[in-house]
Amino acid sequence: MQKSNLNIINLSDLSADWHWLRDEFKHLPNKWAHYTSLNTKLPKHLPKRQSIARFMTATQAVLDAKKQPSLLVSHGPRPAYYGARMAQHLHPQLPHLAYSFNFTDLPTGFQHKAMAKAYQQIDRFVVYSSLEKKLYADYFGIALERIDMLHWSVHAPTVPHDEPPIEQGDYICALGSQGRDYETLFAAMRTLRHIRLVVVATADSVQHLSVPENVTIRTHIPLAHAHNILTHSRLMVVPLRDSQVPCGHVTIASGMFFNKAMIVTNSEGVHDYIQDQKTGVFFNPKEANDLAEKIQQLWDDPIQINRLAATGYAFALEHCTEKNVVRYFADYLSHLQHL
Q1: Residues spanned by CATH 3.40.50.2000 within the chain?
Q2: Cα–Cα distance measured from residue 306 to residue 260, given in angstroms and rounded to the nearest whole number
Q3: CATH number, domain 3-153+321-336, options 2.60.40.10, 1.20.120.80, 3.30.70.100, 3.40.50.2000
Q4: Which H or E run includes 275?
Q5: Is the pTM of this model over 0.90?
Q6: 264 in helix, strand or coil?
Q7: Which of 3, 128, 217, 303 gives the lowest tally of CB atoms within 10 Å of its CB?
Q8: What is the pLDDT of residues 174-210, one digit of tens each?
Q9: 105-117 pLDDT, tens per residue?
Q10: What does the pLDDT look like over 78-87, one tens digit per residue?
Q11: Is residue 236 classed as helix, strand or coil in its secondary structure?
Q12: What Cα–Cα distance (Å) separates residue 211 from each residue in 166, 194, 229, 239?
């Protein structure tokens, strides 16, 4: 594959303005393209509209890839599935990197079988936890050596310290919706009536729950407002639904960059990020009393809060910045171009 002719084609469900690592690789003569299902114009009432949009977008991306030496980079398991299926039919030898390969809930039945078959076309996968490597290898029949683990990584965000707080007073916060267990957190808060909790989540993740009086729910707010709430909180809680759920990585990395001490469900899916009493504090899954005890302990110990926040921030700077993704992708391109 000629380095000067490589066309890097991104396939996603993300904004058309997003171009992944394009700006970090301007020094190389590669071309970049982005195909997103969001650009597909279909009637809103059309059944399975999103699936059809993904199918159409993946077809366009793979047909583009046939015009010159190309690399397909899919973002998320469903763009990966449709991209792989189209490549199997139209361009079987197309190199394909499945980035951000993460399931909140694993597919079952026919969907599972179809995905397992399609994923054989993909040569490399990137996941955000060690748990997911073995989980997806076993579940989809993927060779373990084809799956790479990288920490969730972003450009270090600007923390809005100078902005006035949206929420007044002293409080703790919880952000995020995927794989969450707000029922246990709310049960803990009922025993901590002197502490206020602000939750930023989707309405679906909390609508079935009885909300305690000392809990405020914020739904469908801009990211900047969520960052403001995180910035001015005393600490953050990440309640996960069980000991195996591969979720919470984005929230944990954000909390670290925002210098927040965190109390997190002891789930194997976050062991690559949280070291108990170092980068965070674990509580036992589904145990409201244990969670309440950990919240109270940290609430009363500002020295421990500051220590956890500093250690977490140092961890994020080392493992969770985009430079690590840039390094990984540069190595991947080097390997690809020497095949």
Answers
A1: 3-153+321-336, 172-319
A2: 8
A3: 3.40.50.2000
A4: none
A5: yes
A6: strand
A7: 303
A8: 999 999 999 999 999 999 999 999 999 999 999 999 9
A9: 999 999 999 999 9
A10: 999 999 999 9
A11: strand
A12: 20, 15, 19, 15
